[in-house]
Amino acid sequence: MDHPAVDIAHDDTVVVGRIGRPHGVRGEVTVEVRTDDPALRFAPGSVLRTEPAGRGPLTVAGHRWNGQVLLLALDGVDSREAAEQLRDTELHVPVAELPALEDDVFYDHQLVGLTARLPDGAELGTVAAVRHEGADLLVVHRVGGGQLLVPFVTAIVPTVDLAGGFLVVDPPEGLLDL
């Protein structure tokens, strides 16, 4: 089974979206979705923390899809001008409110900071980020400098030990030379 990773960490919260441009004149905003469960995260009544913090918290009044773009209506935001003031605001939810995941499925914030080891136990580096670009990629800052992108699939990352603070990277030939 592949190891899907969802949401992006920020201290005790995870980023689930970023507000983009206003849509229309009634205060709706476009949202760059950064979660794999937008129906849950942006359900009417959901309260979202913000970064910068002074712009929130924001309560979702409604959501709808316009093609591939998520549109949010927010309590108290009823004009294009008010919506424009929220542009580039990150939307967060507390980590404590995240649902439990199945085995072999992880949130990004659980992976960032883990030590990446080779099968023989040699330290490869530290997971600095998770990128989602068609495939999930671990960004590993290598011991001694440099960066390595590791596909986050079971064949290459067979072990993730959250309690132990590490994961094992079993690289195919040539991956470490990139």
What topology emerges from the helices and strands here?
Layout: E1 5-6, E2 8-10, E3 13-23, E4 28-33, H1 38-41, E5 47-51, E6 58-66, E7 69-74, H2 80-84, E8 90-94, E9 106-107, H3 108-111, E10 115-117, E11 123-133, E12 135-142, E13 147-151, E14 159-161, E15 166-168
Parallel strand pairs: 1-9, 10-15
Antiparallel strand pairs: 2-3, 3-4, 3-8, 4-7, 5-6, 5-8, 6-7, 10-11, 11-12, 12-13, 14-15
How would you explain this protein's 3D organization?
The chain is mainly beta. It has two domains: 91 residues, Elongation Factor Tu (Ef-tu), domain 3 (Beta Barrel); 66 residues, PRC-barrel domain (SH3 type barrels). The chain contains three helices and 15 strands. Strands 3-4-7-6-5-8 form a six-stranded antiparallel barrel. A six-stranded mixed β-sheet has the order 13-12-11-10-15-14. Strands 1-9 form a two-stranded parallel ribbon. A hairpin with a 2-residue loop joins β2 and β3. This is Ribosome maturation factor RimM. Belongs to the RimM family. InterPro entries: PRC_barrel-like_sf (IPR011033), PRC_RimM (IPR056792), RimM (IPR011961), RimM_N (IPR002676), RimM_N_sf (IPR036976), Transl_B-barrel_sf (IPR009000). It comes from Geodermatophilus pulveris.
